[in-house]
Specification:
Elements lengths: L3 H21 L14 E8 L22 E9 L1 H14 L9 H9 L7 E2 L6 E2 L4 H6 L14 E3 L10 E3 L22 H12 L7 H26 L17 H47 L5 H16 L3 H21 L1 H5 L4 H8 L5 H21 L25 E2 L8 E2 L14 E2 L4 E2 L1 H4 L54 E5 L6 E5 L8 E4 L3 E3 L7 E5 L4 E5 L3 E2 L6 E2 L5 E8 L2 E8 L9 E2 L1
Parallel strand pairs: 9-17, 10-14, 18-21
Antiparallel strand pairs: 1-2, 3-4, 5-6, 7-8, 11-12, 13-20, 14-16, 15-16, 19-20
Helix pairs in contact: 5-12, 6-7, 7-8, 7-9, 9-11, 9-12
Length: 608
């Protein structure tokens, strides 16, 4: 007979009871009953229930009745089970601080600190976590580890909409960005506008409308003949034909030079047209105001405001613009007129592209700034007339005179900081030297009576081993020197040597402290850049005159600027100079260079 089905239920009940005793057995030992290697021994007996009571064996002291029959006797090693239990109890125990003992922790647990109020998510109210209701709803931690509580600090004073909470312990933080150090677009100012004028005047711009027109007509005529021939041969229009297509390697040199010439002409034409545009727009504002006055005098019943409105609408109709667009453009054109009234026509002709932005934002359009620009007006016209003799031809389009006010060399005129009318250079020396005359030179002249055909400035070139392929080697940078820009590799003073010599942005001005004339920088000179070369008559053995004495390894010499020289003659002495004279050898000839120590725009250039 099969009793497996009937025994299944007692088997499960017996298994649960035995497993329960096995898992609870290690916990029944106290700390005083420490067992090094616990072993669980259990026995299974079978007896007759009629011979004993129900509770007799349960309450016995361990003695086995004689009527019991032993079925199973087993021993189970509990070493691994007890170690796991001890680790779990230690993890659940509260952590001890540094320097604390078990007794200390027991003492402190008797009076725990009051926890901070917490916000209950269900009712948004403050409740105590030790209340019976909260204790029943408290979640049991899964892990035995507990985070250490730390004070939370809110960082104040950060210029941002977001606040970050950080713990009290230190950790790497992102450094704040200095707003002042961040590069940003700066508004136009009157000082930058004036520096821009000097840059264009002393640059290589050609504002002669007649020469540009002649060059353009010649180029267009050549393009028309070339285009007609190409149309007949290929049947397609080559465009202007002024910028040739890619040529063969044998012709690429001439093609590139032709492209350079044409691009230069177009750039100058565009620059000239831009200047004419500004001049015409400034004059249009004058006609606009004049027409308003005429309409107001012709219609006394109309107010000036209504007359202005009527003239504005009439202009909108002729231009084909909306009233808003017309007003926006008139605001900029009015700035052109204000600059013209203060600085003259030359101020807006040589202003460059920066004039649009300057007049749009109108930074510095106040009475004081305009008065400063009015004082610079004669100086701007002196530089414009002497460096660009034909620039006034542009004014013929608005009916102004094209005759230059100042002629000759730019440094033949002495200007005044107060804005007075410039005077000739010779007139400032007549009181001391009635026969004074000064010739402006670009290069020094060797006195033949003193040196014959030799140049005392000649310096023995470096040995051929230093640079075998170079005829002249720079003693400062070690690169090859040449007057040919394609060959030259020395850029110690590029504004003076190695190419076309640039015009130095300086002017001779009359000092106010009795030193007669001085030299003033119109634009800033960075430290180490050349202001100019000290040129004059290279001679020797002069007595009782102001000369610059120098010498090479072979012989001494003098440079005299009494009757011949350049603008470096007018640099005055100072115990705190912003420039100095420096010797420099260019192609085996010693030169004396006036080098900047850091000169700002508008400062007087002085040497020791």
């Amino acid at each position: 007979m099969d009793f497996s089905a009937e025994l299944e239920s007692p088997r499960q009940s017996l298994s649960r009871e035995i497993l329960g005793h096995v898992t609870e057995a290690p916990r029944e030992f106290s700390s005083t009953e420490r067992i090094n290697r616990p072993v669980l021994r259990f026995q299974l007996f079978v007896e007759d229930a009629d011979d004993h009571g129900d509770d007799e064996c349960d309450n016995c002291d361990g003695a086995v009745p004689a009527t019991c029959r032993l079925l199973i006797s087993r021993r189970l090693d509990l070493s691994g089970i007890t170690e796991s239990a001890e680790l779990g109890s230690q993890a659940r125990a509260p952590s001890l601080g540094v320097g604390e003992t078990d007794q200390d922790s027991l003492a402190t647990t008797a009076t725990p600190p009051l926890p901070s109020p917490t916000l209950c998510p269900s009712n948004r109210s403050t409740s105590c976590p030790d209340s019976p209701r909260e204790s029943t709803r408290r979640r049991k931690g899964i892990s035995g580890l507990r985070p250490v509580r730390a004070d939370i600090t809110v960082v104040d004073g950060i210029d941002t909409q977001r606040q970050m909470q950080v713990v009290a312990r230190s950790f790497p933080k992102r450094s704040k960005i200095d707003k002042e150090a961040v590069a940003s677009l700066k508004e136009a100012s009157l000082d930058k506008f004036i520096v821009g004028i000097w840059e264009h005047i002393h640059g290589g711009a050609d504002l002669d409308p007649q020469s540009i027109l002649e060059q353009w007509q010649a180029a267009a005529s050549a393009a028309g003949s070339t285009g007609a021939a190409t149309m007949g041969n290929t049947g397609r229009n080559p465009g202007f034909g002024l910028l040739p297509a890619m040529a063969s390697p044998a012709e690429v040199g001439g093609s590139f030079n032709q492209s350079n010439a044409f691009c230069r002409k177009v750039t100058q034409a565009s620059r000239t047209c831009r200047s004419i545009e500004v001049v015409v727009q400034a004059r249009w504002i004058e006609h606009f105001e004049s027409y308003i006055n005429f309409m107001a005098s012709s219609n006394p019943s109309m107010s000036t405001k209504k007359c202005r409105k009527a003239v504005l609408l009439e202009a909108c109709k002729d231009f084909g613009w909306t009233e808003k667009d017309m007003r926006n453009r008139m605001r900029i054109w009015s700035g052109y007129k204000e600059l013209k009234d203060a600085g003259g026509w030359a101020a807006i002709v040589f202003a460059g592209m920066g004039i649009y932005r300057f007049c749009k934002y109108r930074i510095g359009f106040d009475a004081e700034s305009m008065q400063g620009l009015r004082a610079l007006r004669p100086r701007i016209e002196v530089a414009a007339d002497t460096l660009h003799p034909n620039w006034r031809h542009l004014l013929a389009v608005v009916g102004e005179s094209s005759e230059a006010r100042f002629t000759g060399h730019p440094h033949d005129w002495v200007v005044f900081p107060c804005g007075s009318e410039p005077v000739p250079l010779r007139s400032t020396y007549l009181e001391r030297h009635s026969l004074f005359n000064f010739e402006h030179l670009d290069e020094s002249i060797v006195d033949v009576r003193a040196w014959g055909g030799d140049d005392p400035r000649w310096v023995l070139p470096p040995t051929a081993l230093a640079c075998p392929k170079a005829a002249f080697t720079c003693r400062s940078c070690g690169q090859e020197q040449s007057d040919d820009a394609k060959v030259n590799a020395c850029y110690c003073f590029p504004s003076l040597f190695g190419g076309t010599r640039a015009v130095s942005p300086v002017q001779v001005f009359h000092t106010s402290n009795g030193r007669n004339n001085g030299l003033q920088a119109l634009m800033p000179f960075d430290r180490g850049t050349a202001v100019g070369e000290f040129v004059g008559l290279v001679t020797k053995d002069l007595q009782d005159v102001d000369v610059l004495s120098s010498s090479t390894s072979s012989r001494p010499y003098q440079i005299w600027q009494g009757r011949q020289g350049n603008y470096t003659r007018f640099a005055n002495h100072s115990c705190r100079p912003n420039a100095q004279f420096q010797s420099f050898v260019w192609m085996s000839i010693e030169r004396i260079i006036l080098v900047s120590k850091g000169i700002g725009a508008g400062e007087e250039i002085t040497v020791d």
